Amino acid sequence: MTQAQAGSPPPWAHRLGYAGLLPFVVLAIGTWVADPEHRLAAGFALASYGAVIASFLGAIHWGLVMRDASGQSAALLGWGVLPSLMAWLALMLDPVLALLLITALLWTCFAVDRLMYPRFQAQTWLPMRLALTLVASASCALGAAGLVCL
User: pTM of the entire structure?
Assistant: First the structure.
């Protein structure tokens, strides 16, 4: 990888990453403060958004593999589809269980990234990934709690 690719995330990546947290936070709040007939919809929307993000996190590994000339990345390709499959299954569950599964999935994605990003000289992205995972997963967990309190 070139030095530019190995550097810290550029400012626009930070802005976009943190902007991507807005649906997590707003929908989690919605599970607590929306009218009771809309709270379940907020929970499903939150789980759906979390599923999309989990799919994105898996897909990053496909992009990393595409740039890896070593040819030893079959396991990463397999991992790359697992978050999408788990997120899709989560959406077939009760919204509370879906949000809890998405919460665990976001942390699993981070754990894999923590192991794999250094291999691709992308470890400088991990602090931002940690912050994004903290807010996204807390939002999903709080959203689940909001639905339990319905």
Answer: 0.92
